[in-house]
Amino acid sequence: MSDTHAQSVAFVRDTEIPSAPPPYAATGPVKWMRENLFATHANGALTLIALYVIWYVLSGAVPWIFNGLWNTSSLSECREVLDGTVGACFSVLTERWNQLLFGFQYPEEYYWRPTLAFLLLGVAAAPVLFFDLPRKMLAFTAIYPFVAYWLIWGGTMLTPIVAFLGVAAGAMVYKRFVTGSFALGFFGGIFAAFVVWNLGGFLISDTASDTAMLGAVPSRDLGGFMLNMMLGVTCVSLSIPIGIALALGRQSSMPLIKWICVVFIEFIRGVPLITLLFVASVMLAYFFPPESSLDLFLRVVIMITMFSGAYIAEVIRGGLAALPKGQYEAADSLGLDYAQAMRLIILPQALKISIPGIVNIAVGLFKDTTLVSVIGMFDIVGMIRGPILASTEWNGVYWELLGFASVLFFIVCYGISQYSQWLERRLATDHR
Amino acid sequence: MADQATQMQVSDEIAITINKMNKWYGTFHVLRDIDLTVNRGERIVICGPSGSGKSTLIRCINALEEHQQGSIEVDGTLLSSDLKNIDTIRSEVGMCFQHFNLFPHLTILENCTLAPIWVRKTPKKEAEETAMHFLEKVKIPDQANKYPGQLSGGQQQRVAIARSLCMRPRIMLFDEPTSALDPEMIKEVLDTMIELAEEGMTMLCVTHEMGFARQVANRVIFMDAGQIVEQNEPEAFFNNPQSPRTQLFLSQILGH
Fold first, then answer.
1. Are the beta carbons of A335 and B97 separated by less than 8 Å?
2. What pLDDT, on a 0 to 100 scale, did the predictor assign at position B183?
3. Number of Cβ pairs closer than 8 Å across A and B?
């Protein structure tokens, strides 16, 4: 009361009140804990229960991991060394890492080839994923599939070159004719590609692979996590354009196209993926002439791509439906034709809305590639269930192997998810 | 103000001819026997109660809506189901919407250059110069690199006008361009439209801005229940409406 004057009503402050620190319980960790952990009785009880569960899990897992052995040669030896104490037998990973990653038949001296292909995948994917990078890098992305094919399968270099020339010829024909008529460009392009591929087929002799620079590896020798990555990357990148085409087709005003797309999508969505994989491995052979053998890897890629393409189509249809009708009208009123309106106005916005859904399907698809173990392909799960667990040395090592597979899948899927969140933030231009 | 309107040139050349045009939504007859001839340089305001078909009428002119009977001829091109004709007409006829319909994923400048580059095949640099010219004209060149979501409604509508003008249209259609705007933004958009009218643009405006109609229009059309009920010069239309329906409408909108 020192600075107020009792005799006057008017008030002028002539001394400043010094600022004081807040009471202890109003800031810092105490306040945080009171607000976030013990706000109510129920809240406090849940916190205690959660702490107990965390402690229970960690008390089991931490000694198991840190007591783990990395250098024994079999499960029985590992158990002997552990002598009843808790501990993991990670030695199965040091012993069999190559089989888990590359499968048990891929020649060891060629391991550098898929590894290089994997590293180059980063370079090829970068300009697609991060569009601030120079557009010229897309040239490498265009040839990457053929380079990767050559590195992984080996054999004569002519095969990927002919495949590339076919695609290039198709693209040129498409570009030449598409301004006149889309159908002419599209089917002309496909026709040109087939002509080049067939002509190329005569050039490549059956023995060309025997003397090739890179030794040939047949598809059945591929395996391990490499197989999951190959299926995942190929099927995701193929199914997005197919999904877009199906989604647009489903909205088409031409009844035949619309009808075909609806039947395709509804049929594929109504059938389990595992059924389609069995069709790929067993039944498709009945539909082709006996002497032709479409590679099992290719058959599986076709089936998984069709499957995820149908799902992505539905996600994109949702994105298209979410766009205000005014966007279509504005594009029309400026005189843009259908292809321009779709490419420049509608799809960029619809795809942006669809990113979470597409990523959801991509992540699911990548994990579903482990289903190929059911049809006798030795992907990472197939390797664990088959050759490794069946061996006398490692019969019974479940946690370590499946945990390792989980870690690999988690890294990739979490990466995809983080990328999509970055992409959404990057594309947020509408400031709503 | 009427003499200012008459100063603006109206030529004898015909821009739009609509002849006995009929349109149905399902079984509902939205437009009935519409006959309308618009000369080049005319500024027509179309008004009427909601649901009277006025928006549908101007949307038929650039084929955003399809008509079922009668004919529409724009700049000598007959509007038919032929996609080539429709694209020709759309690139000659600019349109502004009630909700602007800017492309939210493109900057203001990209919004303006998109159609000239892809439809007119204008080189990018030239298209950008044109775009800046029209953005200056609507008085927002400094916003060129922002996105539509960062602009106010009035600014967005002026960008939409500039975007249409970049295609150098010969006819402009306005579908309630100020209905979604705050009162103080209405003026900036109307000023832009008045300036456009003074330059001799052929304009068809669906609007309830009667002040604008008096100042700029050389003809006011009143529609009700899908028909043109009355059309006249603005002075005569507002001071001496003939049909009882028009009288009722005007008393309601001018009454307060």
1. no
2. 85
3. 73
Q: Is A361 a member of any domain?
A: yes
Three-state SS at B101: coil
Query: Which tokens go with A262?
Result: 């609806």
| Cβ-defined contact of B101 to A430 (cutoff 8 Å) | no
ipTM: 0.89
Interfacial residues of A (vs B; Cβ cutoff 8 Å): 324, 326-327, 329-337, 340, 344-345, 348-349, 352, 427, 429-432
Q: Which residue of B has its CA nearest to A325?
A: B101
**CB spacing of A330 vs B101 below 8 angstroms:** yes
Comparing CA positions, the residue from B5, B62, B15 lying closest to residue B39 is B15
Range of the domain at A388: 221-432
Nearest residue on chain A to B61, alpha-carbon basis: A333
> Between B99, B118, B149, which is nearest A431 by CB?
B149
Does the pLDDT of residue B5 top 50, yes or no?
Answer: no
Whether residue A335 and residue B91 make contact (CB cut-off 8 A), yes or no, is yes
Residue A99: name the closest of A222, A215, A214 by CA.
A222
Tens digit of pLDDT for each residue in B166-204? 999 989 999 998 888 888 888 888 888 888 888 888 999
Alpha-carbon distance of B136 to A387, in angstroms, equals: 73
Contact partners, residue A43, CB within 8 Å, separation at least 6? A37
Which chain B residue's Cα is nearest to A346?
B103
- What band does A119 get if pLDDT is binned at 50, 70 and 90? very high
The 10s digit of each residue's pLDDT in A394-405 is: 888 888 899 999
Write the pLDDT tens digit of every residue in A122-136. 999 988 888 888 888
**Cβ-nearest to A432 among B88, B90, B149:** B149
Residue A111 lies in a domain: no
Is the pLDDT at A339 greater than 90? The verdict is: no
Domain contains A182 = no
Residue of B nearest to A429 (CA): B105
Task: Tell me how far apart the alpha carbons of residues B126 and B122 are, in angstroms, rounded to a whole number.
Answer: 7
The closest alpha carbon to B190, from B176, B200, B171, belongs to B176
| Cβ within 8 Å, pair A430-B99 | no
Phi, psi of A137, deg, nearest 5:
-65, -20
Tell me, yes or no, whether A191 lies in a domain.
no
Helix (H) or strand (E) holding B57: helix B54-61
Residues in chain A: 432
Task: Quote the pLDDT of residue B89.
Answer: 87
Structurally, how many domains does chain A consist of? 2
B213-242 mean pLDDT: 89
Which residues of B sit within 8 Å Cβ distance of A?
62-64, 83, 87-88, 90-91, 93-95, 97, 99, 101-105, 114-115, 118-119, 147-150, 163-164, 167
Residue A6 has pLDDT above 60, yes or no: no
The pLDDT tens digits of the residues spanning A84-101 come to 888 888 888 888 888 899
- Are B147 and A352 within 8 A, CB to CB? no
Choose the final residue of a domain: A58, A83, A98. Answer: A58
Question: Picking from A202-206, A407-411, B160-164, B199-203, which range would have the lowest pLDDT averaged per residue?
Answer: A202-206
| pLDDT bracket for residue A8 (50, 70, 90) | low
Domain boundary among A12, A34, A58: A58
Residue A278 CA to residue A283 CA, distance in Å, equals: 7
Measure in Å the smallest separation between the Cα of B247 and chain A Cα atoms.
Answer: 34
CATH number, position A264? 1.10.3720.10
Provide the CB-side half-sphere exposure for A97 (13 A, CA): 8
Instruction: Round to whole Å and give the CA distance between A175 and A171.
Output: 6
Nearest residue in chain B measured CA to CA from A336? B119
Residues of B within 8 A of A352 (CB-CB) are 105
Does this model's pTM top 0.90? My answer is no
